[in-house]
Amino acid sequence: MPRKNTYIISYDISKDRQRARAANTIKDYGIRVQKSVFECRVRPNAFLELMAKLEKIIDPKTDSVLGYLVCEACFKRKQAIGQNTVLEEEDFFVI
């Protein structure tokens, strides 16, 4: 079974309804760390499934979704400044 990877998902979605749908969809795969940024720890097939779902939600003419694979060593070296920047390690919902 493939191991879980860490992905950073960010979006810029112009319409409120689609933005809310996208956020609720991503919440099933990870945790919100900023208004439009999520950290997801999932297997590669779950990441592809998530991106396919988001593709159906957004308008590609006006919106964008970015998904970045982050290696474990790099993720452990992340730095955060300001409010709500340190999150407790938790299990993510994985499909």
TrEMBL record:
Fetch the InterPro entries from UniProt.
Answer: CRISPR_associated_Cas2, Virulence_VapD/CRISPR_Cas2
Single GO term (MF): hydrolase activity
Which residues of the sequence carry a binding annotation for Mg(2+)?
A: D12
The record's top EC class is: hydrolase
The domain of life is Bacteria
GO BP terms in the entry = defense response to virus; maintenance of CRISPR repeat elements
Output the SUPFAM superfamilies linked to this UniProt entry.
Answer: TTP0101/SSO1404-like
Write the record's keywords in alphabetical order, separated by commas: Antiviral defense, Endonuclease, Hydrolase, Magnesium, Metal-binding, Nuclease
User: What is the E.C. number?
Assistant: 3.1.-.-
Q: Which cofactor does it need?
A: Mg(2+)
Provide the function of this protein. Answer: CRISPR (clustered regularly interspaced short palindromic repeat), is an adaptive immune system that provides protection against mobile genetic elements (viruses, transposable elements and conjugative plasmids). CRISPR clusters contain sequences complementary to antecedent mobile elements and target invading nucleic acids. CRISPR clusters are transcribed and processed into CRISPR RNA (crRNA). Functions as a ssRNA-specific endoribonuclease. Involved in the integration of spacer DNA into the CRISPR cassette.
Instruction: Name the family.
Output: Belongs to the CRISPR-associated endoribonuclease Cas2 protein family.
PANTHER family (UniProt xref): CRISPR-ASSOCIATED ENDORIBONUCLEASE CAS2, CRISPR-ASSOCIATED ENDORIBONUCLEASE CAS2 3
Return the HAMAP family for the record.
Cas2
Q: How does it assemble?
A: Homodimer, forms a heterotetramer with a Cas1 homodimer.
This chain belongs to the protein called CRISPR-associated endoribonuclease Cas2
